Amino acid sequence: METPAPVLRLSERREPPPWLIFVLTAALLAGLAPVCDGLLGARNLTNLCGNLAPLFILATAQALVLISGGIELSLTSIMAVASVAGAAVMRTGAPAAAGVIVMLGAGAVIGGLNGCIIARLRLPPFMVTLISMMFFAGAAVWATESKNISGIASAFLPLGKLLPAAAGMALAAGVIVHVLLKHTMWGRSLRAVGYNPCAAGFAGLRTGSTVATTYVLSGALAGLAAVIYTARLETGSPVLGQRMMLDVVGAAVIGGISLAGGRGQVWQALGGALFFTVLDNALNLMGLSHFRIMMAKGAVILAAAALDARRTLR
Amino acid sequence: MNRLLTHAPLLLLVLTWTVLGIMQPAFLSGESLLNLLRQSASPIVAATGMTVVLIIGGVDLSLGAAMFLAAALAGKMAAAGQPMISCAIVMLAAGAAFGALNAAAVTLLRLPAFVVTLAMLFLGRGLALEITKTRAINLPEEFLDLGRPAVAIPLAALAVILVQMMLSGMAAGRHLFAFGQNPVAVKNSGISTERLTFLTFVVCGICAGLAALLTLGQLGTVSPKFGETREFTAIAAAALGGSSLFGGRGSVFPGTVVGALLMQSIESGLVMLNANPYAYPMWISAVLLAAVLLDSLRIRRVR
What we know:
B: 13 helices
């Protein structure tokens, strides 16, 4: 019988170097620029940043949950409900600020629901968030009878349409989550719980509330992303982001966040979202059909995961 | 109490039928039940394939994409005048090949099934959309023959019987359960985990091809949305039937079959009750949650 593989200490595990994903993105840009007209032009780069901001927020939300050892399949449904709720509130004449609060709040509440069911009832996150996704996607469509909600406060629109506003919100979210993860007890507990829930429990960490609050934060971030998308669409849409879920998970995987939990950082979410956005943007500019872009995304996810698997000892 | 919980899926099914029967007696009529079985054929087969993957502790997110790919190929062949039987064979073969690719990536690249099948979902749907040029393909009338209860139900039953026989009657089946519960032990026992993985995903792929065939029998057309979200309904049906998402536990009959029937019953029942169609997903989700809850209670008691 072969000797079992040596168990490495957490610090000795070979992590991909932080700059790798960004180098890869730069390489992608450089490689595609010659064949892709206007890729590096100011107009396109603005577009790119605009697309990056909400995806980064969603990828961060997903990363948080992945670090806790779970998964969030209902992020897009949360966005839909938040979008519809916020738009409905603003339609009655409430100011933009109220819309933002409602969207964030709706996200936090649904996230909290997920988190409580997962933490208290100890049901598997995959199933719970899958059911949640189905339920809230259906709820959004049911509540609006599949119609968009117009009447958004005009002060709300710049939040999505003005690049500095959207980028600013994304940046703020990223910084806040980074600080929470690295410099607070909560963040350290989160990583411990994700890495080894049993040991974390024995060590006296409050696994239940840590996990639950993670989902609350994740949901609120989804609400923030909904703010940006809703402002861009100028309506509350019950099907917001319906197709995006796989992109979000893909971005997290590409960024190198482990599906097993316990490890992950905000810059990984940024790297993954950035790479994904650049890929999408460049392939679109090159005129590739929608389905070829899909296939390219699939191939990239496989390659990124394979590279990552090579690096960490299994 | 434990006995009760073990049979929770079946009890839920009986409960659902009773409630629906009271609210709408027509639901329990022979014609309606036959229709229910006919419509459940494809979901049952898809969920059967998914069950096998769940048993080894994996998941196949590309099931719907495999279905779409198989249907797209059949559509192209049928449009070119090929007979239905060749189309059917190609569909099953395409499903098997797709499954083999999944297995190859899992074993050779040593990636988690979640990531591999996620990527294959993108690849598969993209390829299928390319083949159909994102246009819907209408299939010749004869395909609708497959949708008749006399054909669809026996086909689904055959798949269920074969897979259940493999799981409970063959050594490979026992190895699958062991693999799901303790992969390291299985490997150290000298059993080839690569072969088990290939078996699992190929079986799932063939089920996907068959499920696509049955769906074609019902719809008669391949739209760009063919097979979308089917992997999630398959997972739900398998979970409803008692398969654990962590692996090592599950049964096709009665488990998954009951789960798929339950989901289809709710949907058909809601249609008969003239319920607000927008509310369907909410009802189904509620029942799913109840089922998952009951299942977790059962595990808790065993410990």
